[in-house]
């Protein structure tokens, strides 16, 4: 997981709004395999290793159902340590009969797609070795091909599924945005990410340190898509983990030069991208 530790900048946690906390907890524990490390009446922190929170779920007051055709979460992506782990969780999904939305071979990785009870998109994936990724002029070659489901299941055959393994991390996040020009400036000039793939004028994929992507951005909900209501089910914010305070301060300086408003709440810095997606800047 060298792409998800210092000196890289990466997504470390996703904070979600849900309509029914108990229903969501049942899903995230029994179907995905998270553990709870902290819980109140309205909030729960979820972990794979028993100590590091990867997902926070919260039930807002007067919550409303997920709004369509808005900016916000397309999916968050849980990165498993190995292909065997991906095979084991695929077998688990088949055994419990949970509906899957798809499964793809992206060449750099193999991925399974589903959604939580509120429609929040989830990708669960395993990377192929970075030495096998194909790069041309700074762009990594990714595609969408049918997954070798039988090969995956064979990898995990005979292995009991016991939840998410301790080496699980937050692999990336993929967001709906309202346009790409200002978004590109914000994430590249402001936050310091590099573009590693362009899908025409519809999507961008960004990373640090030569990863295939830490952040995906698309306009598939429409150019000019509005920001969802604050109490709508969906993404509350995601956390970017910086390798040092010096690196974070440089990014804050970059953002202020772009006239991005930075708010500080109890020692934490928060910003919004030009499409209204909220981000916490952490070290």
UniProtKB/TrEMBL annotation:
InterPro entries: Glyas_Bleomycin-R_OHBP_Dase, Glyas_Fos-R_dOase_dom, VOC_core. PROSITE patterns: VOC. Transmembrane segments: none annotated. Pfam families: Glyoxalase (PF00903). Gene3D superfamilies: 2,3-Dihydroxybiphenyl 1,2-Dioxygenase, domain 1. Coiled coil: none annotated. Residues 10-127, 169-283 form the VOC domain. This is Glyoxalase. It comes from Heyndrickxia oleronia.
């Amino acid at each position: 997981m060298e792409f998800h530790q210092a000196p890289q900048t990466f997504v470390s946690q996703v904070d979600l709004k849900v309509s029914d906390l108990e229903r969501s907890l049942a899903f995230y524990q029994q179907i995905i395999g998270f553990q709870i490390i902290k819980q109140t009446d309205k909030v729960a922190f979820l972990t794979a290793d028993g100590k590091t929170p990867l997902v926070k779920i919260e039930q807002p007051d007067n919550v409303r159902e997920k709004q369509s055709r808005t900016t916000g979460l397309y999916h968050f992506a849980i990165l498993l340590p190995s292909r065997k782990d991906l095979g084991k969780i695929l077998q688990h999904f088949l055994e419990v009969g949970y509906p899957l939305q798809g499964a793809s071979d992206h060449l750099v990785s193999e991925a399974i797609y589903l959604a939580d009870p509120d429609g929040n998109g989830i990708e669960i994936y395993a990377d192929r070795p970075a030495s096998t990724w194909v790069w041309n002029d700074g762009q990594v070659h990714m595609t969408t091909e049918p997954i070798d489901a039988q090969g995956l299941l064979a990898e995990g055959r005979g292995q009991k599924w016991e939840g998410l393994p301790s080496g699980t991390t937050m692999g990336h996040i993929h967001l709906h945005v309202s346009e790409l020009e200002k978004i590109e400036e914000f994430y590249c000039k402001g936050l310091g990410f590099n573009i590693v793939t362009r899908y025409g004028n519809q999507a961008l994929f960004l990373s640090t340190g030569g990863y295939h992507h830490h952040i995906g951005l698309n306009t598939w909900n429409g150019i000019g898509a509005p920001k969802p209501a604050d109490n709508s089910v969906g993404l509350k914010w995601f956390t970017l983990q910086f390798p040092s305070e010096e690196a974070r301060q440089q990014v804050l300086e970059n953002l202020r030069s772009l006239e991005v408003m930075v708010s500080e709440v109890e020692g934490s810095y928060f910003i919004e991208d030009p499409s209204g997606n909220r981000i916490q800047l952490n070290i």
